[in-house]
Amino acid sequence: MVTIKFLGGVNEIGGNKILIEDKANDARVMLDFGMNFTRHGMFFEEFIQPRTSNGITDYLQMGVLPWMEGIYRPDLLEFAGRKAHSDQAIDAIVLSHAHLDHAAHISFIDGAIPVYCSQVTHAILKALHETQPRSLGNEILDYRKRPALDYKDRPIARKFNIVKGRFKVNGLEIELIPVDHSIPGACGMLIYGSDRTVAYSGDLRLHGTDGHLTQEFVERLRIEKPDVFMCEGTRIDETENRNEAYVKVNCDQAISQAKGLVIADFAFKDTTRFKTFLEIARSTGRKLCIPFKDAYYIRALAELVPGLPSLKDDSILLYQKRRMSGTFRASDYQSWEREFLDKGNTATAEAVGRMQEQAIAALGYFDVPELIDIKPQPGSVYIKSASEAFNEEQQFDLERLKRWLAHFGIRYENYHASGHAPGPDLAQVMNNSNAKVIMPIHTEKPELFQGMAGNARVELPILTK
Ligand SMILES: [Zn+2]
Ligand SMILES: [Zn+2]
User: Fold this and answer.
1) Which ligand is nearest to the CA of 32?
2) What distance in angstroms lies between residue 9's CA and the mean position of ligand 2's atoms?
3) What distance in angstroms lies between residue 392's CA and the mean position of ligand 2's atoms?
4) Structural domain boundaries enclosing 344
5) What is the CATH number of the domain that holds 368?
6) pLDDT at 139 over 90
7) How far is CA 175 from each of CA 163, 171, 188, 217, 221, rounded to the nearest angstrom?
8) Per residue in 147-191, pLDDT tens?
9) How many whole angstroms separate alpha carbon 124 and alpha carbon 180?
């Protein structure tokens, strides 16, 4: 019999950790193992972080990680004074997409448990891994045994199985089906259990440039008639349905009218948004100037995501930040960055300052000090192409950002299209899914699913304690 347990993703946006057990097929599979930003934010902030020196203890004690026997890294358990298991309690993690609220806590999972995901998701995790400093919470691809006493100890690689379509974990058949979301490589799933078929949305939308993928996912569900459909509801209470064309038209207009510098603040993982700004750069005679981290990411995905440019493209510049000594010497940069230094298309803040009317700088809130060196001229514009502010902290950040922009006389504009489907689209997804039971996940308002799920019965998931 197939059972479903929720260790995360209930009454919260993200942190999905869903355990599917099918005894007849000898399989126990975890769907996603993401970070729950809400719980994390209740206790931690920028200057109060779980201590890496304390291993997994801080995470477990504060309920940022749920306790479950047999899933965590033996080195971390022993370091925390707990007994390590001899058998793993799960056979696999199946990852829907590379956003941290779905993937980050894989860092704590026993390395003997393999992770299954799409090729693009793996490529994204690899690019992030190679460009980030190691910490306990971002050891998805590999990890260093704790306590880390000898820095010569080599990291241990986690086993990743790159899958497409149908595959099996022991006797259990699972189908990974591409959907459209604000990161490439995102998938929904169908799990063909011994006595029931379970569907999982991951994160999705219909209104994106690849919305047809989500339609095709729903069509697969309609044919398979899942017994249970676990459906995300990030924006179940919203009707706003702005799409990428809205972003493009409005940004194009704002940029065409800008007299000086344009700053485009968007999530670098969102290749759709990157392509939107690249197209606008080309049509307005500007160059899109991207930080090295973004460049590394774009290059890692160039072969896998259609429409991404080569870094040698005429419309691309690589933004070289001032680091360490402040003299732009090679040794100021991380080893992965150094190859970009002599590509011939790097631009420092001063260089961007000299070509303000020909540049779109892909910078964000944390980069605002760069404005001191760029010296934006009158008529410059800052376009925030992301959600404005979810919570009080982000509201403060936005106010601080606006003070910086006011200081330099830069106009602020906000044009964004969400990665998540709004209520009416979710209703359409649920209605067309032919599911018998809908379980709302990845939402703070599960009760709103009642009355939106057509003929399906809505069953609220319960968090396993
Ligand atoms: Zn999510
Ligand atoms: Zn997501």
Assistant:
1) 1
2) 12
3) 22
4) 244-414
5) 3.40.50.10710
6) yes
7) 9, 13, 8, 11, 11
8) 988 878 899 999 999 999 999 999 999 999 999 999 999 999 999
9) 16
